[in-house]
Amino acid sequence: MNPKIIELQPNAANEMRTALLRWYRFSNEIMNSTMRLSQPILEAYFRGLSDVIPNLNDMVKKTCEIPETDCPPRCVCDMEWDACEGSKVSGTIDIVNSGDQAKSFTVSSGSFRTIDDDSGVKPQLKPDHFTLAPGDKQTVLVSVNIEKAFVQNDVYQTEVKIRGRYEQCVRLHLSVRRKYTPHCEIKHGEIPRRIVAHHWYDHFQCEELCFEPVRERVPTGSTKPKRTSQALKKKRSVKKKKSQRK
Question: Quick one: 44 and 100 in the same domain?
């Protein structure tokens, strides 16, 4: 059987080309419409997937990982002072035995230091050793005398170490400032005066004291000042004249 070759006329070929172009455009429009309609669905799907995956990770961690805890800090707290030479500062530390058995404690400290200087001065600790029953508390007094060994405007530090079942500490910060004594100078002379206009319709002015003068009081029980001989003579002469007139 011999195949037959179909020859298309020019008009038929143009019609075929036009039909293919229409089909191609129609397919693109369908695909674009489908993408626009499915975009919200796809976004919601991916959002839900991103929410589910972390939960799955958390579920895996809860079932597979060992829970961990952090250690408490070695230094429990800080104490800060601001003082000058010749003064004394103090503070207190409460130590509680939270264990189930009695325990002995020792409290010690090094000297106050800066990066470049060691004062050689240690804080006084009272008491520095004791034994506590379960639940008991001991208050330790910490005091420092600010001596000449401290450099002014420097900040010194040291640690108070508490040793029982293990070692804990309290940091001490000491700011040494320049010794300052408040001072004020008063210049006291004559009572100052001010100039005041007398009236608006004249051009006179007057002076008045800015402060009331202090009246000296005679202490109780003191004798009156004795009169001079001239004052006595003058008084007698006045009496004599009066008597002559009479």
Answer: no
Same domain, 43 and 83: no
SS3 label, residue 198: coil
Q: Give dist(CA 117, CA 242) in Å, integer.
A: 94
Instruction: Report the distance separating Cα 130 and Cα 139, nearest Å.
Output: 10
Task: Give the CATH number, domain containing residue 141.
Answer: 2.60.40.10
- The 10s digit of each residue's pLDDT in 1-53 is 455 555 545 566 677 777 777 777 777 777 777 777 777 777 776 676 666 56
Q: Which domain holds residue 104?
A: 75-177
184-223 CB burial, b ≥16 within 10 A, e <16: eeeeeeeeeeeeeeeeeeeeeeeeeeeeeeeeeeeeeeee
**Predicted TM-score of the model (pTM):** 0.52
Q: Is residue 215 part of a domain?
A: no
What does DSSP say about strands 75-84 and 167-177: parallel, antiparallel, or unpaired? Answer: parallel
